[in-house]
Amino acid sequence: MSAPAPARVETASLAGMALGIGAYTLFSVHDAMIKGVITALPAAQILLVRGLVVVVLCVLIGRRKVVKDLLKSRNLVLILGRGLMTLAAWVMYYSAGRELQLAEMTTLYYVAPIMTTILAVVFLKEQLNLARVGGAAIGFFGVVVAANPSGFVLDWPVLMVLGAAFCWAVAMIFMRTISRSDGTLVQVLAQNLIHVALMSVLVLPAWQGMSMTEWALCVAAGLVGGMGQFTLVEAARQVPASVLGTVEYGALIWSFIFGYLFWGEMPATTVYVGAFLVVAAGLTLALSEHRNRREIVDAP
């Protein structure tokens, strides 16, 4: 076994988790931008504009090659499935944003990592250890504490967010599978092409006028969301879906910060307790993955 190998594998593991944290941080910024326009614009129209922004970016970066690679992909069915799942997730999630606070939306949505972990075991045959199960359980418990479930009413906005969480979990499994053979830019382009095509049919006949501020927020959401999508796919190449799902809990903290800064949503004491548990779960999992990688590489 060569000497440099341990460092390479350790870096890959921790770098993948860091990319996952970065991706979900970007998505938190993205969600805050969408929250700023969702009460004025239909969710489908917002998704169309942001999707167009991401498609243009992908073509400018990848040019003809990214289009050719997409057309030659052996995973077109999975790519279509992932595009439809993410589209359904975002339409339901943003539509619920008309009725729920940002922190409420994010908290409910974080049942998705639990679903991702279960699906990863069933369909990807990923192996779970005590740290992964414990990290997911502690992170989810932290979300529940922060949410203060007694304040929730099981109505349509809540059900839409839970439905969005399931669609996102399925999309994560598709993404992990596609990432084994298709490039990151190909996946991001394909997903947003699907969104643009479907949303155009729904939105263009009943287009709603937009102010400069609304245009700016939608375009900015496209830029930030596109970076988040790219970073997330890169993370999926380096860490199992079950681990990446647990990393997702860290973004909960940002939702409370942005909710306070932009909408004056005051976190309760339980929020701080829950946030501490979420961070503790992420750090524990990161240390465990780092140690396991090192043991595998150093084994004779």
TrEMBL record:
<feature type="transmembrane region" description="Helical">
    <location>
        <begin position="156"/>
        <end position="174"/>
    </location>
</feature>
<feature type="transmembrane region" description="Helical">
    <location>
        <begin position="75"/>
        <end position="95"/>
    </location>
</feature>
<feature type="transmembrane region" description="Helical">
    <location>
        <begin position="269"/>
        <end position="287"/>
    </location>
</feature>
<feature type="domain" description="EamA">
    <location>
        <begin position="15"/>
        <end position="145"/>
    </location>
</feature>
<dbReference type="InterPro" id="IPR000620">
    <property type="entry name" value="EamA_dom"/>
</dbReference>
<keyword id="KW-1133">Transmembrane helix</keyword>
<dbReference type="InterPro" id="IPR037185">
    <property type="entry name" value="EmrE-like"/>
</dbReference>
<dbReference type="Pfam" id="PF00892">
    <property type="entry name" value="EamA"/>
</dbReference>
<dbReference type="GO" id="GO:0016020">
    <property type="term" value="C:membrane"/>
</dbReference>
<feature type="transmembrane region" description="Helical">
    <location>
        <begin position="12"/>
        <end position="30"/>
    </location>
</feature>
<comment type="similarity">
    <text>Belongs to the drug/metabolite transporter (DMT) superfamily. 10 TMS drug/metabolite exporter (DME) (TC 2.A.7.3) family.</text>
</comment>
<keyword id="KW-0812">Transmembrane</keyword>
<feature type="transmembrane region" description="Helical">
    <location>
        <begin position="107"/>
        <end position="124"/>
    </location>
</feature>
<feature type="transmembrane region" description="Helical">
    <location>
        <begin position="186"/>
        <end position="207"/>
    </location>
</feature>
<feature type="transmembrane region" description="Helical">
    <location>
        <begin position="42"/>
        <end position="63"/>
    </location>
</feature>
<feature type="transmembrane region" description="Helical">
    <location>
        <begin position="239"/>
        <end position="263"/>
    </location>
</feature>
<feature type="transmembrane region" description="Helical">
    <location>
        <begin position="213"/>
        <end position="232"/>
    </location>
</feature>
<keyword id="KW-0472">Membrane</keyword>
<protein>
    <submittedName>
        <fullName>DMT family transporter</fullName>
    </submittedName>
</protein>
<feature type="transmembrane region" description="Helical">
    <location>
        <begin position="131"/>
        <end position="150"/>
    </location>
</feature>
<feature type="domain" description="EamA">
    <location>
        <begin position="156"/>
        <end position="281"/>
    </location>
</feature>
